[in-house]
Amino acid sequence: MKREIPIKSFAISLFILRARADTFEVILMRRRGSTLADEWCQVAGGIEHGETAWQAALREAYEETGLTLNTLYSADICEQFYEADRDAITLTPVFVAYAAPDCRVRLNDEHSEFRWMTFEEAANLLPFSGQRSTLEHIKREFADRRPNPLLEIRAAR
């Protein structure tokens, strides 16, 4: 009998954009600690008991950046990757939010620094190809054009 690899979905991924001149920037943060130490990443984190994925995205954004986000979208994509320590395939729903151009970021202790950057700069810093592919999708669907209003999560308001 063949063994199946489990598929898990227990975390979220959130890319926060802000308008800058005639384009958008994305925020990345440098991780500290034992998991992905010194790597640049978007907002990410686990979904807590009783919480929806989109609620987790808003909570994680506030915990990691201090930002309260009013407009949240499903990115209409999931990151997927294999985790050897869990011997499982992880599917992570991706969200996109827009921050005010003059927002003030306050990092928590999970990160040592942050930068607002162009999509190209961010792609050069993200460590995984899945993140870079997701970033390309977000640029195409949320920066280069107006997002589909059907993807807005109105309950987040």
Average predicted confidence as pLDDT: 93
What general outline do the C-alpha atoms trace? Answer: globular
Low-confidence stretches: none
Major sheet: size, sense and barrel closure?
8 strands, mixed
CATH class: Alpha Beta
Structural class: alpha+beta
Let me know the CATH homologous superfamily: Nucleoside Triphosphate Pyrophosphohydrolase
Tell me the strand percentage band.
Answer: 35-45%
What's the Cα radius of gyration? 15 Å
Q: What would you say the CATH architecture is?
A: Alpha-Beta Complex
Describe this entry's structure for a reader:
With 157 residues, this protein is α+β, with helices and mostly antiparallel strands. It has one domain: Nucleoside Triphosphate Pyrophosphohydrolase (Alpha-Beta Complex), CATH 3.90.79.10. It is 22% helix and 37% strand. The chain has helices at 53-65, 119-125, 129-143; strands spanning 7-8, 11-20, 23-31, 40-41, 43-46, 72-83, 88-99, 111-117. A hairpin with a 4-residue loop joins strand 6 and strand 7 (88-99). Its cofactor is Mg(2+).
Set out the fold topology.
Elements lengths: L6 E2 L2 E10 L2 E9 L8 E2 L1 E4 L6 H13 L6 E12 L4 E12 L11 E7 L1 H7 L3 H15 L14
Parallel strand pairs: 1-7, 2-7
Antiparallel strand pairs: 2-3, 2-5, 3-4, 3-8, 6-7
Helix pairs in contact: 2-3
Write a concise synopsis of the structure shown:
The protein has 157 residues and is α+β, with helices and mostly antiparallel strands. Helix content is 22%, strand content 37%. Pfam families: NUDIX (PF00293).
